Protein 1
Amino acid sequence: MSFDLSIPGQLGMALLPEVVLTVGAMLLLLGAAWGKETPARARTIGTLGIALSVVTIAVVVWMWMSGAKATPGIIAVDSFRWGADLVILLATIIAIALGIDYARVEQLVSGETYVLVLLASAGMMLLTSARDLIIVFLGIELMSIAVYVLAGVNRRSAKAAEASLKYFLLGAFSTGFLLYGIALIYGATGSTDLATIGTKVTGATIATAPMLLVGTALLLVGFGFKVAAVPFHMWTPDVYEGAPTPITAYMAAAVKAAAFAALFRVWREAFPGALASWHLGLWWLAVLTMVVGNLVALVQKNIKRMLAYSSIAHAGYLLVAVVSNNQLGSAAFLFYVLAYTLATMGAFGVVIAVGEPGERHQQLSDFAGLWTVRPWLAAAMAVFMLALLGFPIAGGMGFFAKWYVLQAALDAAHPETALAVVLVLTSVLSAGYYLAVVMVMFMRPRSADAPPLRPVRAPTFLVVYASAIVLLFFGIFPAGFLGAARMSVPTMAAAPASSPPTAIARR
Amino acid sequence: MRDFLVSIHYGSWVLLALLGIPLVGALLLVLQSAVAKDGSSLEAAPSARWIALITFLVEFVVSLGLWWAFDPNTAAWQFRVTHWWIPGWGANFDVGVDGISLFMVLLTTFLMPLSVLGGWTSVREKVRSYYALLLILTTGMIGVFLALDLLFFYVMWEVMLIPMYFIIGIWGGERRIYASIKFFIYTFLGSLLMLVAIIYLWLHSVDTTTLRNTFGYDDIMRHAVVTSRAALWLFGAFFLAFAVKVPMFPFHTWLPDAHTEAPTAGSVILAGIMLKMGTYGFLRFALPLFPGAALTPWVRNTILTLAVIGIIYGALVAMVQPDFKKLVAYSSVSHLGFVVLGIFALTLQSVQGALMVMINHGISTGALFLLIGMIYERKHTRLIDAYGGIARVVPMFAVVLTLVSLSSIGLPGTNGFVGEFLVLIGSFKSHPWFTLVATTGVIVAACYLLWAIQRILFNKLDKPENAQLPDLNRRELAIVGVLTVAILWIGIYPAPVLRRMERSAANFVQVVTTNQATRISNVSMTGGQR
């Protein structure tokens, strides 16, 4: 298949997965609004939402396998997009599954939650396909507005309301930065199309023009908010802690993945010519994010907050792949995001399984002696923690994810050895808090007044153990997956000036 | 014997079996605990320790064939098995044995059943998990010694950490959590920098015929092209990872905590096997890969100085320890200093000696930790002062402890003598001053151990409660009996051992010293390319 994106009908076909997801979500919304809201009805909506995601996955896989291509235009039709879409849809399924369980524990009745998740995912998928800054903006807004609401979907919780408002205010603020940045870049280059910008930003005059510099800086600030990079991360811990746990998991995995996918594409396509001017800024952004995220995570006592800071740290690792700005970096990105999604969402699944109604029992100490009462749950959590730590075999894919990023950094045109060293040193720091969870679960006795654990229900059960098994399996036999990730690089309209030809030719 | 082994194609499956057998045992235990509803205390699961013991015995018997099947007349890899793992990256599952790793593997399979027997009755909680972890740990350790692919090596190197972390942290002494985290973080820090170095090395070693990057040990030796400055940094990263593991002064502070807090089997494995991975890493990777960097005079002298400081410092600190287990732990720092001295002195004798010390330290220190475990089970204290004059109460224990201590000191006729003597005469040829200082370490070793056993065994029996201690039982006699045989055998007739390691040791010395010259010229020719 080859799409001519200048023809509206073909553009629509190229957006088929997004269309399927959006239309399906609308129908589900009608179903949710119709008639009386009962828990059973909400659950049905959730189940149908999962089914819809599966259908969308099938469409994405079909389009990927059929080798769809497109003429240069406002959206990309390439394997990078499909790969990122699959990760996002996987996160969607996990979030809805956890949400069904969570609603039962917290006695929430709202079918719209699942519809909102689906709509946010549609926005994310638009974002991963965007090859035009206006589409980037549309995708980010569609995603963000749905997530603002999702953060506050538990109306009984004051914390959730606070989280939602905080996220909304800061998110709106960051969108302003993003939009202003887009405007300035348009002013400097006369285009919002990434490929056109890429060809313009090669000459010395435009690449160093103040307007473009300020524009890219503002764009970076906007993205920095969305991916929670230090120093634009202040909202993250509060929002992650306050939001309902499945939504936190969704934010930590899918929102971050989508924003990073867009960041990758924009930087790979539009600004390689201006590498000299943004390199230092992005470099420091990565270093700060890794160091601060890991340091602050060390002192957290609440698991959700700890995972929030851990997600900041991982944003830092991913920024290393962005800074490397090579093909390997984008392949590394997809593999990393998949491993990270499974590990983080699995960990949040365990948090839900251990938690008590009212979002209680989320302190580190509440996990004490988990091994003695729920050995397999504790073992799965240990796998997730070790995967986030990037440990081989026991941490499964996490190791190869980190490996891939390191490889991208060392194989860059100018090897980012210093960044690689910062990455591993901060990883050692992260052992402090990931292992603290393992230590508490396995080496501390269960406190005497700890309430008996609820039985783990099917959705959470499936999410937790399936994630752990997938992580472990591809941690031992990564060959097939690495191959798929390597293919998933963005197609480039303009050959970037900075890509190191030797490094690619060798493999 | 050889004919029989050939007839069953021993060489083609032995290494796979050695890696697989422990995993099978671990799987059995996991399955058992998945079906069982009765918890896993020792009373509820008495079969767990039998499964572990039998698995380890099978493993040992299988590994014994290596002794006969091994061809001592070549330094090439033997029993090699290669299978692709991640073809896109040029990573293979690639294992093989030479005269250096042969004895490390045998040492591992020899000590594991003994350490299970040593903790036969002392581990009472969650026994299934405990033995499953021991079994997984064994696969990891053997994998480290067999790996001929840098990625596979790294993965195995890290994998060992987790079981050991749990063994110390769950079944250890009072300060177990602190000790286990310290152990983990120290090792992890060193190995992650090695990871960066491995990736860098991999990116710079391209097979000239296939134009692919490769992790294969031999390929990297042949094709790696790095500048001498980069080689220095790479060596530094490898060195740090191994130096933490050895542990060399000043990276040793995790060791006394980990060894002291670990349960008996954990201490035996840590001291007997895991410390050797550091020195094995020097022999296999750090020196042959970066001879130019390692033999740069200031680098070499710094390392030799650290080794000698370790010898003296470890011995002196051991002398003042009130806790017998900690004393033995610090004595390890001292003994491993001899190994590093022998390796970096780089004469055939000193390298052979270093290998001998690695084996002997595994046997003697393993035996000491087992003996401490036995007496601890009786009295529940490790303080030297709590005993005193118990030689008459527990005569068998006294005899064995004395013999093992003497072997650890290096008395002629015991195994300890062979290794340290070879290291000293070998090193004296190339580095007389370092050797002279190191020799005093042997004297201090006599002081701290003899003084300790005097206080434990031969002083006056001044604590009436000690008069009732039971002597060794049959299980314990079996353990110490086997160890005694090993100590005396290597002490009296080390020739078969030396013969098997000679070719590989000579090859090591030759590779390092000749490549040192060629590598530097290599670097000056190709240095400008990257």
Note: The first strand of chain A starts at residue 2 and ends at 3.
Protein 2
Amino acid sequence: MDLSSVLHGFPSIAWSLGRIIAGVALFAAALPLRDGARWRIPAAILGLMAAYVVLSVLLLMPTREGGLAFSLGQLATYSLLLISCVGAVLAVWDTVVWTALFCCAAGYSVQNLASGATELFYVLQAGGHPGLVGYTSQERLLIEITCTAVTYAAAFALITRPLLRDGLSPTRDRSMLVMMAVVIIVIIGFDLVIKWLTEQGIALGAMMLLRLFHGLACIFTLAMEFELLVRREAEAERDTLRQVIAEHERQYEQARESVAAVNARMHDIRHAVAQLGAAEGMGSEALREMVREIAVYDTTVRTGNEALDTVLSERRFLLEREGVALSCMADGAALSFMAPADIYTLFSAILDGAAAAGTPSISLVIREALGTASIHVECYGGTPDGAWLETGRTVVRRYGGTFSTAAEDGTLHINVLFPAR
Amino acid sequence: MYRILIVEDTPAEADALRAALDRYGAETGERFSVTVLPQALDFVERCPAADLIFMDIEMPGINGMEAAEALRAYDAETPLIFVTNLAQYAVHGYAVDALDFIVKPMIYNDFRLRMDRAMRQLRKNDGAMITLPTAEGMRVVRLRDIIYVDILRHDLYYHVDSLPEPLRLRGSIKGAANELGADFVRVSSACLANMCHVRLIRQGSVVLSNGEELYFSRGCHKAALETLNAFVGRSI
């Protein structure tokens, strides 16, 4: 292969690369774009094209087209291009290298599936003869575009749409991801071997079987990746959250009972003091002082939401013991769409997180504003504590809310917003 | 200079607040003129103008919560901070859109936390102006009157409250965002909305005071909701 054929083959390079880029984008579309995506995207595409041309010149030019060395060169080109794609995804989307690797490996699988389907179509149409019998280049392009479009549309419906809905989170199982990337390279090698065998001339039945296995390998790899990254992560997250919520449900019930018991006791004491007042004459200054003292120790918070009342009453008592002052202004009705255990979990996490941040003072405001339910927490002299806040973030995400934290001038801000439904 | 009104029936408590304001002023360089009203009734009858109000809740006659309700009947914006002996009394302060409350006896750090938030609100309420070089000449508009800004082929369109047609000028959204400041949220790469004019926040859009609905672009969605979250939470 010489330089002129590389240049001559530029439309073909652009087409192959376009298919790979579209395949990768099918998965990366679920990720948030970086700032300046408008210039990052063309820059990444140009970078990939340059990488493809350079790899073709270095690895394919010294070889003879159709030979084993050429196929090996192609394999090396695609492998190195996979790494370049990871860089391109990292440049365009705000993500980590592992998620980028997932997107690229999965994108390669879809591209390979489309390529395999096109090859199978050709050979079947040609009655088992190798090559492109009876097709003009325009017809060939049309067939390639159709096969690619059908495969990609199926991948979009089955994979991208659920990803866009659920989001793509970085996996913890990194070694498996590397393994998957290796599998993709093996599949590409498999594809090249089938092409080589077809050119050498093998029986139609054998070729169809090989293509079938190749297609199945692509689908299996995709399914495994999807299972590995999306479903297993989501299930792990759901399991952890379910455990946390189950634990909090139990705690909530206990807290509700204790707060109710304290309130009943407080009611009895107030009643006894009132009776004492009736007997001794309510004018006594000491008695008035006692009524006042009792009111100070009455930790009950009444916000119009039982779960919120319980968690605030309980936590205020615990925080006061640790010398942390909690002031809250709360419209409990604003959170009526949340399950009691979730409210308990969310506010336990926020308040425990704020307390763990070492603040002497927490201010909490819950209100309805602009059609949203808004929670605002400020902790003077606090720094965010990741673990507690992550639990809160998970609960908020389940209700489609936004959870953000910021530390400014020595004050930690936690803001939660549930948009209008 | 900001006008601070303290409605407090106990002179010692009013003095403590005044001292805290002096200290805050010395620390931050802000200047305050402080007026004390010893009765909520005076407040309700005279309706004195102020930039920030500290209101005691337990007062003889009309209590602080009732006085705040009266205030909100004619003034929805002046920031209000309750001062109370008992935290329980202030739990429903959201109903009169109070910023927060301070429990007596006051601790300066608690006070400072609330003052920081109040100052953010006060700066938001001021009438900052912007000069726009339109094709028809220079126009000066108040920042708070701008509802949203969008761009069409290098032309910025400033949609201003009370103007029937948007003001058109050359520029970029990035430049406009820098000039307009923190109250504006980027809804999409071609549009900035004034959060003071947002009336409803939906998962995928915001509805503005003029009834128009602006949809978040995918690239801006997350950041826009986070900015709106901080705005509604009064962190910015």
Note: The mean pLDDT of chain B is 90.
